[in-house]
Amino acid sequence: MFPLPPHFREMLFDNACTGDSRVSRAAAVVLGKIRWGLMLILSVFIYGSHAPLLTLSKENGQIPFSASSVVVLIELTKLMLSLAFLMIRGCGQRKLSVSWHHAAPFALSALLYAANNNLVVHLQLFMDPSTFQVLSNLKIGSTALLFSMFLHQRLTARKWLALFLLIAAGAFYTYGGLQDPQHMPASDMQLHITPIGLVLIFLYCLISGLSAVYTEVVLKTQDLPLNLQNAFLYFFGVLLNIIIHLSSSSGAGFLEGFSFWVLLIIVSQALNGLIMSVVMKHSSNITRLFVISSSIMVNALLSVLLFGLHLTTFFFLSVLLISFAVYFYYGIK
């Protein structure tokens, strides 16, 4: 669905045989396309399964664990995996001169991500969850705008149309893509938002786009191995989220309420974070946006299979819009 990024192709060539064999280079391209496709498919599945996993982890309709402790463990798992990959692959890499000047930019990335995660919680006080989910799709536009500005990538009118279709697809799916036959339909839910909520949702979309684009800029401008960059980012992520957890802890145990589903959430989200760093390093945040939008199909399928929800016309309209968006952005030459 998405083309193999040039940087990813170059990396594969560097790791392939150094001879002039066209066969080996062709095999590297094919292998690269397969690896890239499988990686994106896995990310789509992880994004789509996140909400169903959260539902499965609930007890009596409530989340029994501390959300802040889960975030800490996700960041810690990403840090451990990054260090492990760095040690495994570090033997064959050139010696690098690394200083705190390389690590410092990732502190801002971690701070922006932490601020956005906490802003999501406060947003629920000023609007209903459905309104938040619908309006949060505007972060696609803010991310694309900041991507165009900071990475000097000119997006054509056709590509802007594709991104608008992604926003519309997300809004339609959130509003009424699924319906529980035992409860009121989505159209009957009480939607509300306050003026403060409008300001906060604008701030949320801005910080969301800024955190993603800023991190992409840092990843691409530093001549460092991705695993080392990830280690910097997730070190600060662990540190900040531990501080947030300690300041907001209700006194419950750190692992209280944990289950198999919670552990699956931690592992899958950690893995997805590493995949997204590869996408931002070798492709772009635009690819990440398409991956996130495409995940609604996985979310819908799991919701139907696990919870007996019904697909509505809004779901099929969303799938159609995403298909058009992919075609307009990647398909037309």
Description:
This protein is mainly α. It is built from 12 helices and 2 strands, in the order αααααααβααααβα. It has helices spanning 6-15, 22-56, 67-90, 100-123, 129-135, 139-150, 157-176, 195-221, 226-248, 260-282, 285-307, 313-331; strands at residues 178-179, 310-311. A two-stranded antiparallel ribbon has the order 1-2. Helix 2 packs across helix 11 (285-307) and helix 3 packs antiparallel against helix 9. It starts with 5 loop residues before the first helix and ends with a helix.
Nutshell version of this structure?
By secondary structure, this protein is an all-alpha fold. It has twelve helices and two strands. 74% of the residues lie in helices and 1% in strands.
Order of adjacent strands in the largest pleated sheet: 1-2
* H-E order: HHHHHHHEHHHHEH
Unreliable stretches: 185-189
**Tally of helical segments:** 12
Q: What class, by secondary structure content?
A: mainly alpha
Q: How much of the sequence is in beta strands?
A: under 5%
The number of E-state strands comes to 2
